Amino acid sequence: MITILGLGPGDPNLLTREAWGVISRAKLVYVRTRRHPTVAGFPKRTVVRSFDHLYRKHAAFDDVYAAIVTAIMRVARKGNVVYAVPGHPLFGEKTTSLLLAQARLEGVSTRVIGGLSYVEPTLEALTVAALATPDMPVIADPMNGLQLCDALDLAVAHHPALDPDRPVIIGQIYSRAVASNVKLTLMNQYGPRHMVCVVGGERRGTTGVGSSDAVRWLPLAELDHGDWFDHLTSLYVTASSAISSFARLQETTAHLRAPEGCPWDQEQTHASLRNTLLEEAYETLQTIDQDDMPALKEELGDLLFNIVLQVQIATEAEEFRMIDVIESIDAKLKRRHPHVFGDVHVADAAQVLINWETIKKSERKNKGETRKGALDGIARALPALAKAQKMGARVERSGFRWDTPEQRLAKVREELQETLAARDEQQRFEELGDLLFTLAVVANGYHVDAESALRAACAKFAKRFSVVERLVDDRGQEMKTMTSSALLELWAEAKQRTRA
């Protein structure tokens, strides 16, 4: 028999009567760590053996946990074992799940004796502190969406898998180094001034669970600025002051489509939103070209709403749901980045692109799709300039390419001469198209995005032309009545002014 019991959150007075009874009757108790205030309160005749030495022996926690399970099972094969862990055995305690699985595999009986987890005293300490200090937030009922997270999982993540609209308690922030990594992960979602609260560990066990001395409020950016962490420290992260989660945006969108929602949103279909989606995409591109970050934030929101609305329409028609969309793109990203999520090694970005095409070809084969040529699969709705450049890139990767920049420019000159030599309107139309196509393909050789370059040129032209218009107005003239030479002089002046 293996008895796994919880030692509670740190205050010896919070040990359950059942757990105390087992400890009092046991001659030997194994503990994961002696660094817990309750262990010091064991009966004097109780022999305690800890696994603290394994933390010094192994570099990874998983190796420590595996060694503990091995040791406990070795004893359990011969007789009864009492194994005590901090908090509740089934709450944030990996050795428990590993032990239960191994014991079941070997036919060893198990018994779990609960203990108070760190969550309840953390909430109590926060509540006491809030009542003592009026400007502190009052802690809501945890049933209203409180999230729980392990600091060690958060520390190795790049983005927190948390709902920012709901508060969260993060356990096991046992050192300043862990706090620093947790902070970096949280700051990928929360701002540096977002308020968090450190609930002290060992001080919580000695000062008292409900003492406001165990609570420290500070901005997220300052989380690791002090050495106030130990093995019983937890962190409380407040909810965002405004709706900011993806799920809440989905709720807003679904509400707009509901019977009591908006008539316009209710009428929309995939097809009716096509032009709106394109408009929002182009407006987003414009803010990028203008390097206008506040406007970009707004336009990305508009673009995101269009995507969420499309998915809501599909959800109502039982076509697919947002979880399907996210699952699909996440799997695709990981599948197409084996050099990040797998064991493939690449030398540079060029090799990444080669691997990308190989993976895409394999995906098409698995789907039963056949592609006859390199140009198959290019979206028909792409703007002509972007489509031309994409076609050029595709054929170049297939081996159909120029060897030098000089050869590219020679092709431009050839197309320009053919355009100038055109005999009629139809031939001129065709040759101008060839010239534009060639220019788009040439841009590939210089690693220039033709669409962006042309948008930038349009913006530059518009800026200069507006200066010319002002200069003409200042002279009291009409542009239509001015000579070409006079307008060219004004254009040169406009170029000089815009450069300045």
Which CATH class of the largest domain is shown? Alpha Beta
The structure class reads alpha/beta
The strands making up the biggest β-sheet line up spatially as: 3-2-4-1-5
H-E string:
EHEEHHEHEHEHEHEHEEHHHHHHHHHHHH
Q: Using DSSP, what is the number of strands? A: 10
What is the domain tally? Answer: 5
Which superfamily, in CATH terms, is the homologous superfamily of the largest domain?
Tetrapyrrole methylase, C-terminal domain
* Overall shape: elongated
Radius of gyration: 33 Å
Q: Helix tally?
A: 20
Return the average pLDDT rounded to an integer.
Answer: 90
CATH A-level architecture of the largest domain: 2-Layer Sandwich
CATH topology description of the largest domain: Methyltransferase, Cobalt-precorrin-4 Transmethylase, Domain 2
What's the story with the biggest beta sheet?
Answer: 5 strands, parallel
* Beta fraction: 5-15%
**Helicity, as a percent range:** 40-55%
Query: What's the N-to-C terminus distance?
Result: 84 Å
